[in-house]
Amino acid sequence: MKQINQFDNAEEFFELPNSWRDKGRKEGREEGLEQGRLAEKEEIVRKSLEENLDVDFISKITGLPVKRILEIKEESDL
């Protein structure tokens, strides 16, 4: 009977929230979302450059520095 009680406690232990795991998942989601936002901005830069929009204007719209926009322009051969 003592072994059964120990097992019951073990189940309760594993059902407790794991704060480190939860924190890691939250940070991972936030990092993934940030990477997605950056990728989207860079795609907007590429499309804007294809339309021959002004680099300063693209910077203002996307919030990316002019230097990064020029790097994207070089990388994309635009």
TrEMBL record:
This is Putative transposase/invertase (TIGR01784 family). Residues 1-35 are annotated as: Disordered. It comes from the Bacteria. Residues 20-35 have a biased composition (Basic and acidic residues).
